Amino acid sequence: MTTAKDIMHPGAEWLPAHETLDRAAQMMRDLDVGALPIADENERLCGILTDRDIVVGCVAQGHDPSRVTAGDMAKGTPRWIEANADVEDVLREMKNHRIRRIPVIENKRLVGMISEADLARHLSDAQVAGWAEKVYEHRR
């Protein structure tokens, strides 16, 4: 059985909710990633911040990224997957919620992230195509 831990990118880092968006952008640059899980003061997942969130949700709205925090941007219920979850469970979770990245949790700690690139590297073309069809389908 292939698990989430088998296909994830290890070593993901939390972004504390109190960090500003300019600092988040610097972390994304330094880590060469487009998304960071947001952690509350107890290191619990409270959201995911993407580079697009910073641009569209902050800068394009005329806000100063040095004054807006990651916690200000965290909305909704974040999705995650257990490290020992079967890859079919990973795909189902991502398809059902139409998400392109998902944090991987083990013993209540962040151990990695699964992105589109990870899916493409580790799964069959049919699995990736089924995922992409659902995640990118146009909803009216």
Automatic annotation (TrEMBL):
Residues 8-66, 73-130 form the CBS domain. The keyword Ribosomal protein does not apply. It comes from the Bacteria. Keywords: CBS domain. Gene3D superfamilies: CBS-domain. The keyword Iron does not apply. InterPro entries: CBS_dom (IPR000644), CBS_dom_sf (IPR046342), Diverse_CBS-Domain (IPR051257). This is Hypoxic response protein 1. It comes from Streptomyces lavendofoliae. The gene is hrp1.
